[in-house]
C-alpha cells in the first residue's frame, strides 16, 4: 500500500497536509498528539496498523498544524481549530465517511460527529477521553508540561515510556526520536496542554452515528474510566476493553485492535502476516539470536544502526513477536 500526500487550506488560512492510502469507502483517521505523515509511514509498527486498517477502504490521515508536514499556524490550539482542520480535510470526500479518533483525536472526532451528524457513517473512539483534566492530577500534568517545554529530549523519553510500556527499549527510543521530529518543544507543549483542556461531555448526547469505544485496560495515559464516560454519554455506544498497557494503537496487540475495529466498520478481517522472512531478515535474526545489539548487527552487515533497528522491528512485526528474546528463540527453533 502506498500513500498519496496533498495539502488543503482551512477556512482560516492554515495549511494542512493530509494523506490517502487505498481505495473504497473513506475512513478518516484523526491521530493523536504528535504526528508526521512521512516518518510515521516509515515506522514499521505504525505503518502496519495503517495498512491493516486501510485494506479495502480509503484511509485518510492528516498532520495537525505545527506537526509533521503541516506548517505552524499563527493561532492558538483549540477544539474549534481542530474541527476547522478536520473540516478542510473532509470537504472533498462528498460522501458520508467512517471516522476514527485515537487518543487526543478521540474527543475531536466525537465533537465532529456531534456537530456534523450527516457526515459520519460510523464512529470509533480509541484510547480517548471525555474530560481531559481527569487524565491525571494537576501536579502531574504541570510536571509533564514543564518537562516537555524545558527538556524536550527527556520529556519525549518519559512520554514514550508512558505511551508504549509493552514495547522494548529500542522501540521506545525510536518512538521518542519520532516525537521530537514531529514538532518543536513549544508546539508539543501547547498540544499536550490542549489535550488536558478538551472536554466534550456536553456534546456526546448529540452523537447519532453508531459508535464503538475501544480501550486497553492498563492504558497509562488515559484511564479506563474515561472510555466508560465516552460510552455512557453516547446513546447506544458499544464499549470493548482489550488487555494491554500501551496507549499507542500500534503498540501492544495491534492485530486484535484492528480485528475489533474492522468488524464494527463492516470490513472483512485483515490478512494475518506470515512468518516468512527475507534472506536479509534471516541474517539479522541469526545475529539477534547470537545476542548482538543493533550497533553490532550494523557493523557485521555493513549498514547503519538505524537500518539494523528497522530490520529487527520488521522481523518482530512479521513474526508477531514483542521482544528480541522471542526472535532469538524462534530462530533457534528453526
From TrEMBL:
Pfam families: Abhydrolase_6 (PF12697), GerE (PF00196)
SMART domains linked: HTH_LUXR (SM00421)
GO BP annotations listed: regulation of DNA-templated transcription
Superkingdom of origin organism: Bacteria
A molecular function GO annotation: catalytic activity
UniProt-listed CDD domains: LuxR_C_like
Matches recorded under Gene3D superfamilies: alpha/beta hydrolase, Winged helix-like DNA-binding domain superfamily/Winged helix DNA-binding domain
Domain HTH luxR-type: 270-334
Regions that span the bilayer: none
Signal sequence, start to end: none
PANTHER family listed in its UniProt record: BIFUNCTIONAL LIPASE_ADENYLATE CYCLASE LIPJ, HYDROLASE, ALPHA/BETA FOLD FAMILY PROTEIN
Protein name: LuxR family transcriptional regulator
Species of origin: Actinoplanes awajinensis subsp. mycoplanecinus
Amino acid at each position: 500500500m502506498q500513500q498519496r500526500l496533498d495539502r488543503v487550506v482551512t477556512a482560516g488560512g492554515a495549511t494542512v497536509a493530509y494523506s490517502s492510502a487505498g481505495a473504497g469507502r473513506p475512513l478518516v483517521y484523526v491521530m493523536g498528539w504528535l504526528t508526521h505523515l512521512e516518518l510515521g509511514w516509515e515506522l514499521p509498527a505504525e505503518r502496519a496498523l495503517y495498512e491493516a486498517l486501510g485494506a479495502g477502504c480509503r484511509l485518510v490521515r492528516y498532520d495537525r498544524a505545527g506537526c509533521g508536514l503541516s506548517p505552524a499556524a499563527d493561532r492558538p490550539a483549540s477544539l474549534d481549530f481542530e474541527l476547522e482542520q478536520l473540516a478542510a480535510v473532509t470537504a472533498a470526500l462528498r460522501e458520508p465517511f467512517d471516522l476514527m479518533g485515537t487518543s487526543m483525536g478521540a474527543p475531536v472526532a466525537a465533537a465532529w460527529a456531534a456537530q456534523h451528524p450527516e457526515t459520519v457513517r460510523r464512529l470509533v473512539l480509541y484510547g480517548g477521553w471525555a474530560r481531559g483534566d481527569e487524565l491525571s492530577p494537576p501536579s502531574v500534568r504541570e510536571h509533564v508540561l514543564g518537562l516537555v517545554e524545558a527538556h524536550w529530549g527527556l520529556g519525549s523519553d518519559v512520554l514514550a515510556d508512558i505511551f508504549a510500556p509493552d514495547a522494548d527499549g529500542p522501540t521506545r527510543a525510536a518512538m521518542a526520536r519520532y516525537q521530537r521530529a514531529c514538532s518543536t518543544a513549544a508546539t508539543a507543549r501547547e498540544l499536550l496542554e490542549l489535550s488536558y483542556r478538551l472536554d466534550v461531555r456536553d456534546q456526546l448526547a448529540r452523537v447519532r452515528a453508531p459508535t464503538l469505544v475501544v480501550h486497553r485496560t492498563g492504558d497509562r495515559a488515559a484511564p479506563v474510566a474515561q472510555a466508560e464516560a465516552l460510552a455512557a454519554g453516547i446513546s447506544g455506544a458499544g464499549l470493548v476493553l482489550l488487555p494491554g498497557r500501551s496507549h499507542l494503537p500500534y503498540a501492544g496487540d495491534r492485530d486484535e485492535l484492528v480485528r475489533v475495529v474492522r468488524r464494527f466498520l463492516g470490513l472483512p478481517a485483515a490478512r494475518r502476516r506470515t512468518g516468512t522472512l527475507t534472506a536479509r531478515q534471516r541474517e539479522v535474526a541469526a545475529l539477534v539470536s547470537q545476542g548482538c545489539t543493533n550497533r553490532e548487527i550494523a557493523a557485521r552487515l555493513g549498514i547503519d544502526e538505524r537500518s539494523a533497528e528497522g530490520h529487527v522491528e520488521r522481523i518482530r512485526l512479521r513474526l508477531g513477536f514483542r521482544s528480541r528474546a522471542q526472535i532469538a528463540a524462534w530462530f533457534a527453533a528453526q
